[in-house]
């Protein structure tokens, strides 16, 4: 009897141990799954972060600097028939975004096209993101190829229209920008390379560098810029040239008709006079 009671007690203890073990294992499984899910999510997030390619050079300010170079410097360089050296930081090869910008096509008001893969976008900013994400491997990110670093010397804020008016001039910043501007003039247009380089050196100082001061009324781009012909003006000019011959033809025919009419009136008057005379 005692043996039977002992066996029943052992069975109860055994069942209790099995239930406790199964409960502990079932409660630990979600924790393990949760840890695994969290680790997988962490790895995925880390991988996404590693796939994002960051370039520490402002595309917008680089674009502004290139606009200034094209409009306020290159017309004078072309007039002098001077060839800028690749050592000059203003050279097109020293713009990290130049190749991408040349593969950007503005087809219509809301249509921008990638020249690499022919993909279309509604706005330019989306095309810029596309370049950053898909075609960043085409960029040459060597040192000294960020035109945005020259914005202080080239007055990019005026072109980008982000100048805060009625702001107190910072003499230290003006001195730094002037020093950078003068170094560009010396490296890009060395005076010992001939008369053309000397004239461009002087022009660069007047066009860009003299305005970096907190005294006086010097303004940047004092030598002017490239003259741009607007599309409406061009259309009106072409239409005027086409209509001008027609106007001359109309005037010619009109004057010829008046002469013929006067001659016929003369003949009629002369014939009338002859009939009245006996």
Automatic annotation (TrEMBL):
Database matches in InterPro entries: Znf_C2H2_type
Residue ranges of every copy of the C2H2-type domain listed in the record: 114-135
Residue ranges crossing the lipid bilayer per the database entry: 231-254
Alphabetical UniProt keywords: Membrane, Signal, Transmembrane, Transmembrane helix
Domain of life (superkingdom): Eukaryota
Signal peptide: 1-28
Protein name, UniProt field: C2H2-type domain-containing protein
């Amino acid at each position: 009897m005692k043996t039977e009671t002992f066996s029943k007690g052992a069975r109860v203890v055994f069942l209790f141990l099995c239930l406790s073990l199964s409960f502990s294992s079932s409660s630990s499984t979600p924790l393990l799954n949760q840890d695994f899910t969290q680790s997988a999510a962490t790895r995925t997030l880390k991988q996404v972060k590693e796939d994002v390619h960051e370039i520490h050079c402002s595309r917008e300010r680089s674009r502004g600097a290139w606009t200034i170079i094209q409009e306020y410097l290159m017309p004078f360089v072309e007039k002098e028939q001077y060839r800028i050296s690749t050592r000059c930081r203003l050279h097109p090869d020293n713009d990290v975004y130049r190749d991408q910008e040349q593969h950007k096509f503005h087809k219509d008001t809301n249509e921008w096209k990638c020249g690499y893969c022919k993909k279309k976008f509604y706005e330019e900013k989306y095309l810029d993101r596309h370049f950053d994400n898909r075609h960043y491997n085409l960029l040459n990110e060597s040192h000294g190829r960020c035109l945005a670093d020259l914005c202080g010397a080239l007055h990019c804020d005026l072109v980008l229209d982000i100048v805060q008016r009625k702001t107190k001039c910072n003499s230290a910043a003006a001195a730094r920008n002037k020093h950078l501007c003068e170094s560009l003039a010396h490296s890009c247009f060395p005076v010992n390379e001939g008369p053309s380089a000397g004239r461009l050196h002087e022009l660069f100082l007047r066009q860009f560098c003299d305005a970096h001061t907190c005294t006086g009324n010097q303004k940047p781009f004092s030598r002017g810029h490239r003259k741009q012909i607007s599309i409406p003006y061009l259309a009106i000019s072409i239409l005027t040239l086409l209509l001008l011959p027609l106007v001359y033809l109309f005037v010619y025919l009109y004057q010829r008709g008046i002469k013929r009419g006067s001659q016929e009136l003369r003949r009629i008057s002369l014939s009338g006079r002859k009939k009245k005379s006996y």
